[in-house]
UniProtKB/TrEMBL annotation:
It comes from Dinothrombium tinctorium. Residues 19-61 form the RING-type domain. InterPro entries: Znf_RING, Znf_RING/FYVE/PHD, Znf_RING_CS. It comes from the Eukaryota. Keywords: Coiled coil, Metal-binding, Zinc, Zinc-finger. This is E3 ubiquitin-protein ligase NRDP1-like protein. GO terms for molecular function: zinc ion binding. Residues 176-203 form a coiled coil. Pfam families: zf-C3HC4_2.
Length: 237
């Protein structure tokens, strides 16, 4: 039933506001070509269920179509909007206006689809339908078990981190010791190599100079030879 049950209204509802398809008070009212009012959902399913040839107003039998449906006059919306009705959910005593009812029911704490906090403040969030079976102690025991499990996991992670840190620390100090042990020896070796190198340089110095000198002389004599050759060739012309 898409409309609102007439029984829920505080005062008797004018028949004009009752949908002749669902026989309840119009919800999202819509007007057909012959000015009858229906719930939008009701007239859509009425027209959708019949074949194109048989699309007729359920009241006047005149041919109608979804395309010719239009909004109801403003006065109808205003009069409907002022009607007062009870909330649909068991346990809720609220009476609200037609305009407010959908918003109220969506947020109503008695709406079985909505979540509520346990009244005893155990921290549980429950659906209305779960309240009957809810036991604060059992709920808290479950939470404690979950937390204990999390703490155990954290402890294990912490322990494995501690072991890893210790191992790294040991490795570092062993490396430092080894470096300290080798350092004097390496320093001594380095200075010996340095000495040897400068010795080699000293011995190498004169040899290199001699070599350069002999290369220069060779080059000079070959130039001299060439000059003499051309001079001779010039004379013979
Ligand atoms: Zn209806
Ligand atoms: Zn009609
Ligand atoms: Zn309510
Ligand atoms: Zn509780």
């Amino acid at each position: 039933m898409p409309g609102y049950d007439t029984e829920r209204f505080i005062s008797k509802v004018n028949e004009e506001f009752v949908c002749s398809i669902c026989l309840a008070v119009l919800k999202n009212p819509i007007c057909d070509a012959c000015e009858h009012y229906f719930c939008e959902e009701c007239i859509h399913s009425w027209l959708g269920a019949t074949s194109r040839r048989l699309r007729k107003c359920p009241l006047s039998n005149e041919e109608i179509s979804i395309n010719t449906l239009k909004p109801v006059p403003r006065i109808v919306r205003n009069l409907l909007g002022r009607l007062e009705l009870k909330c649909a959910f068991d346990g809720c005593e609220k009476i609200v206006t037609y305009n407010e009812i959908d918003h109220h029911e969506t947020n109503c704490t008695f709406n079985p689809e909505n979540n509520v906090q346990c009244e005893k403040n155990c921290g549980a969030t429950l659906k209305i339908s779960e309240i009957g079976d809810h036991d604060c102690v059992k709920y808290l025991q479950l939470i404690v078990a979950e937390l204990t499990e999390k703490v155990d996991i954290l402890k294990a992670i912490n322990e494995s981190n501690r072991i890893e840190i210790n191992e790294t620390r040991k490795l570092c100090s062993a490396t430092i010791q080894e470096v300290n042990r080798l350092l004097p020896m390496l320093t001594k070796e380095l200075s010996a190599v340095k000495n040897e190198l400068s010795e080699i340089r000293r011995n190498l110095g004169p040899v290199t100079q001699d070599k350069e000198k002999s290369v220069d002389m060779k080059r000079q004599s070959s130039i001299k030879d060439k000059v003499e050759y051309y001079e001779r060739a010039g004379k013979s012309d």
